[in-house]
Amino acid sequence: MSNTATVEHAGRRALVVGASRGIGLGLVQVLLARGWQVTATVRDSARTPQALAELQTQYDAALEIVELDLASPARPAELAASLGVQALNLLVISAGIMGPDHQRAEQASQEETGELFDLNAMAPLRLARALLPAMASHGVIGFVSSRMGSVSLNDSGDRELYRASKAALNSLSCGFAINEAIPAGVGVLNLHPGWVKTDMGGEEAPVTVEQSATGLVTVLEAALGQAEQRFVDFEGQTLAW
Ligand code: NDP
Q1: GO: which molecular function terms (predicted)?
Q2: In the 8-state DSSP scheme, what is residue 69?
Q3: How many angstroms does the Cα of residue 105 sit away from the middle of ligand 1?
Q4: DSSP annotation of 84
Q5: Per-residue pLDDT at 3
Q6: Which protein residues are within 6 Å of ligand 1, measured from CB?
Q7: Sorting pLDDT into bands at 50, 70 and 90, what band is 197?
Q8: Which one is the CATH code of 13-233: 3.40.50.2300, 3.40.640.10, 3.40.710.10, 3.40.50.720?
Q9: SS3 content of the chain, % helix, strand, coil (to 5)
Q10: ipTM greater than 0.95
């Protein structure tokens, strides 16, 4: 990590949603190392994971840990207010689930599809919309999506429901970008983190959390000040929707 990057981003504020483990935790690590002020959300602060507690000790006031269940029935505005964040340069929503392991979409119950689509598509949109007034002008909102959410790049047909939930996220965030975020001077990135070694990605995944998070933060930092929407991977390559 270069000193230039640290100085450049000193004082900038980021909120990372879903930071207890995996890619979200990696993002927090990279942002702190680059001099950002970070608010990290976990579902249950009484069970703050060791890695995040160690970052808190290392970075002290630069890291704040707050509770947020993205699936919470609380009204989005109340949820946003409870986070107590203002003048955010970066909001990254990483929390997500793989959903039921059915071969075909119709094998899932309505409850399962409801939970999956609500958490992966609706909840990020609700939160981003509620937090738009807390974004600094020229800030960026990153939705952690997936290449699997691209309809045109779907060449295997597996994981029908998960793919559809990320395609729904992509579609919803397009509307949000066009109607609200970009007119407010805020950029929107739909991010593919790579196939990453996490609880979700599994041990055989070729990309480490550090590689993915470093790439994603580089892409997000480069997008600051550009009020546009892109679907982009952790190496900066634009993806087809
Ligand atoms: P993990 O399963 O490792 O971590 C998931 C994270 O989401 C955890 O921090 C978890 O919190 C949080 N989370 C789940 N449900 C909720 C909720 N209701 N409210 C708040 N937080 C919640 O996943 P990854 O880090 O691998 O994935 C992160 C994102 O990247 C996801 O959106 C995923 O779809 C996407 N992605 C991942 C890929 C990969 O290869 N890993 C590939 C493409 C996309 P808790 O610890 O409390 O459960």
Answers
A1: oxidoreductase activity, acting on the CH-OH group of donors, NAD or NADP as acceptor
A2: -
A3: 21
A4: T
A5: 47
A6: 18, 20-24, 43, 68-71, 94-97, 119, 144, 146, 193, 195-196, 198-201, 205
A7: very high
A8: 3.40.50.720
A9: 45, 20, 35
A10: yes
